[in-house]
Design goal:
The chain contains 14 helices and 12 strands. With about 375 residues, the chain is an alpha/beta fold. The strands form 3 sheets. A 6-stranded mixed sheet has the order 2-4-1-5-6-7, with helices on both faces. It has a 3-stranded mixed sheet with strand order 3-9-8, sandwiched between helices.
Length: about 375
């Protein structure tokens, strides 16, 4: 079950450095010139999950398998990208394929790393990138309108719904707001997603600060945080340079380095968890002697749909899910203790899975 977060921003803001740290590879070339990333790099990243360690220890599992997310390093956008400037068309297509967007904003000064606009202003950078995405959305919607005209003349019901949504999106975008600000009815959600609008995706702002500001941020990141509060968005302060150094250290060395910096955990842990939450994702677990595993599901999913994450046959032939809350599993020493205490529940097809559930699916195909 793949969820992709696209890492976007202007050239030389630290996107590739951040991506390298996320994936602990050097696949994305971090160089001091625009467009050093030409093809999008995709990294498969484990989601930090301390609960999995405890579950595996209690179950005596030989292996631990964490949930994963995909991060896509997309080359830097510039003004005019919506019209094909730089490598704009290619970049916009890569963004369209992601589930959420992480805006990396430069919140540090460094004379050795040039800024494409010659000044450090993260809010202006944000506005530049967002404007290009909005312009690309408007162009896409205008083209769709032309294609719908024939179907509208034939009184096509789906075409009417799509056109109404297009008009709603154009109205919001024309006011200088991203498409995610549009008020969409629940019945229209599926058709809305089919429009594949760049600015309808959930977003998070990543403030890339200097090493000395990794703990508390700085004046640049403070401006970003204030801005994101005004629009009800999320932001994370991180030093991509520190994270790239941490990624090269083993456990003990990493802990010592974090301590010298006054940090309790890598900023990447916070970033990944924030990305997970941004997409409305939750985790359930399976546990046994062979492996303990974390599985990703969408908030609000039923037990059969969660079972389908493991295998479609599990969903098709779903009978029930033996379910134990994480707190009960840990406090009672595992499955047997939970059963003896009457804490293992037999949940049916209507059960809405909860974050942290330990589940054993019964099915028949």
């Amino acid at each position: 079950m793949g969820f992709k977060c696209g890492i976007v921003g202007l050239p030389n803001v630290g996107k590739s450095t951040l991506f390298n740290a996320l994936t602990q590879t050097a696949n994305a070339q971090a160089a001091n010139y625009p467009f050093c990333t030409i093809e999008p790099n995709v990294g498969d990243v484990a989601v930090p999950e301390s609960r999995l360690d405890k579950i595996a220890a209690i179950a005596g599992s030989a292996q631990k398998i964490p949930a994963r997310m995909n991060f896509v390093d997309i080359a830097g956008l510039v003004r005019g990208a919506s019209k094909g400037e730089g490598l704009g068309n290619q970049f916009l297509a890569n963004i369209r394929e992601t589930d959420a967007i992480l805006y990396v904003l430069r919140c540090f000064e460094d004379e050795d790393i040039t800024h494409v606009d010659g000044k450090i202003d993260p809010i202006a950078d944000l506005e530049t990138v967002q404007t290009e995405l909005m312009l690309a959305d408007l162009e896409s919607l205008e083209k769709r309108k032309v294609g719908l005209e024939k179907k509208l003349k034939q009184n096509d019901k789906d075409a009417k719904q799509t056109m109404a949504l297009i008009e709603k999106a154009i109205a919001v975008l024309s006011e200088g707001q991203p498409a995610r600000y549009a008020d969409i009815d629940e019945d229209d959600e599926k058709a809305w997603k089919m429009l594949q609008l760049l600015t309808s995706k959930p977003v998070m702002y990543v403030c890339n600060v200097d090493e000395d500001s990794a703990g508390n941020g700085n004046e640049f990141s403070a401006k970003v945080i204030e801005h994101t509060k005004s629009e009800g968005a999320e932001s994370v302060v991180i030093s991509a340079q520190i994270e790239s150094e941490l990624a090269l250290l083993d456990g003990d060395e990493r802990d010592e380095y974090l301590e010298t910096l006054g940090l309790t955990e890598p900023g990447l842990n916070r970033l990944i968890r924030a990305g997970y939450a941004l997409l409305g994702l939750k985790t359930y677990f399976t546990a046994g002697p062979k492996e303990a595993r974390a599985w990703t599901f969408k908030d609000g999913w039923t037990a059969p749909k969660c079972a389908g994450v493991i295998h479609t046959d599990f969903e098709k032939g779903f009978i029930r899910a033996e379910t134990t809350a994480y707190e009960d599993y840990v406090s009672l020493g595992g499955e047997q203790g939970a059963k003896e205490a009457g804490k293992v529940r037999q949940e049916g097809k209507e059960y809405i899975a909860k974050d942290g559930d330990i589940m054993l699916f019964k099915f028949n195909v």
